[in-house]
Amino acid sequence: MRSLSERAAPRAMRMTPPTSKPMKTLTGVLLAGALAFTASCDDFLNVNINPNAPQEVSANLYLPPLLYWMGTSPQFDGRFVGRYTQQWFIAGGSLSTWDRMGYDPSSDNGAQQWRDVYWSHGQNLVDMMRIAGAEERWDLLGVGYAIKAWGWMVLTDLHGEIIIKEAIDQTKFSFNYDSQEFAYQEIAVLLDSAITLLQRTDGAVDQVYLGRTDNFYQGDRTKWLKFAYGLRALSLNHFSNKSSYNPAAVIAAVNSSLASNADDALAGFPGTNNNDRNFWGRTRNNMNAYRQTRFALGLMDGTEFGGAVDPRMSRMLSPAPDGVYRGLDPNVIGFGGLPTASQPNNLQGYPGAGGLGLPGRYLFADKAKLPVMTYAQLQFVKAEAAYRANDKATARLAYINGVSSHIDFVNARNTDDAQAVTAISAAEKAAFLANAGVVPINPNSLTLTQIMSQKYIAQWGWGHNELWMDMRRYNYTDIDPASGKQVFPGFTLPINLFPDNSGKIVQRIRPRFNSEYVWNIPGLEAIGARALDYHTKPLWITQP
Prior knowledge:
This protein is mainly α and 544 residues long. The chain contains 19 helices and four strands. It has helices at 4-7, 9-12, 33-46, 63-84, 112-134, 138-159, 180-198, 207-211, 221-237, 247-255, 294-298, 313-316, 375-388, 392-413, 426-433, 448-459, 464-473, 513-519, 521-527, and strands at residues 88-90, 265-267, 290-292, 370-373. A two-stranded antiparallel ribbon has the order 1-3. A two-stranded antiparallel ribbon has the order 2-4. It is globular, with a radius of gyration of 23 Å.
């Protein structure tokens, strides 16, 4: 059964962020249906030009809505991706399509990032970059290239083939898809441009100008440069199953990226009205039916790592009313017969749908900051790359940095909105890191199971795109030869897969229904996307 927030998703998609935005009407293309309206209304719109208002505005005014959606739209889709990866489960009266690795036919569920990359960003990002280039604002232009690279990466990682060459072309009514291989080539080119531009200090580069509308880094060009390197590291590490994979290049990119938690890309929320509250906050009413899974809990309660109870468990996850931490089985309807006092609370920390107006927990609070990229995440990328390069000493150090910094991250996020959660103490942190079941003393004893499980924990609740990419790269249930356990220990595939899967596991999300399956049938047919089991077709990037 889908939650109220899911059933209302198409309406929610039409909401716009409350941040400053250009006075110019949003004219980006929502592939491909919006084009029909645009083409037929040009003459009408032209007679409504206001001679007393600017038709072109300062380039930095485009930035706030772009950043808003970078922080928020992955969470829209995270309601669904998070069930593929068993971060959470809907405790309803039946097993949902997504918990069975399916999809909702004739629905835009799972396609918010599609909508926002092509429309909310779309022409607005093009215009921002055009104006910034003309004015030699190389810092803002570099930010634009990084945002564009981010957009193509999140889309191709979710959907596979996407539209790039013909995107934002207002003369077209249907669009041809590009291969995922081309998408990754384009991402590399865009990041090269972003890195080159963000190193420049000439022209009209100006931290004050950029900082007026930069909610992530307050105009700090050097942090945006680190962000671009972080994107490069993530994209290069996705090639891990290919012969072209280059661990040294991944490590080099991480070393040039975020240097500490102070460099994390965080979207802040002042909490003054609905849309400028955290999407996971209780007030926005998007997560009341969701509960943590048994799999996610097992990575933290000592089940999988020698009895070492992770101090983050009681700061990230939610107990039942009786104070015991439990997780739900996605193969079992509802709470599986648990009495009311034993049923896990909602992710804000309250029974049922409670918690309105009360302090939340971790990321699930109205003013909690949502990450787009973190230092901890990238340290685990480095650890994996070094491990694959057989540099176990480097892998172990990066792994320790990842775990340690994420503990600090959890403490920080639990202060964003005065959450009623006790901070992890220095003693708790030290004891956890000293546990040999968590951090092996001998670098040669480190395993992929440890690296990827800790990365999962660090991305739980926000890093849905990268987390799902990790699980697909390891085919969900691959065995780590070093540990003899699954890379993601405790993860089990759904027993009753969605009927359209034909017994196969999910690999991608279908393109957005209301643009592609309504307006762009020829494009879909060319890539086989009208097949009922298209969502089980493996991605190019995860194949050898």
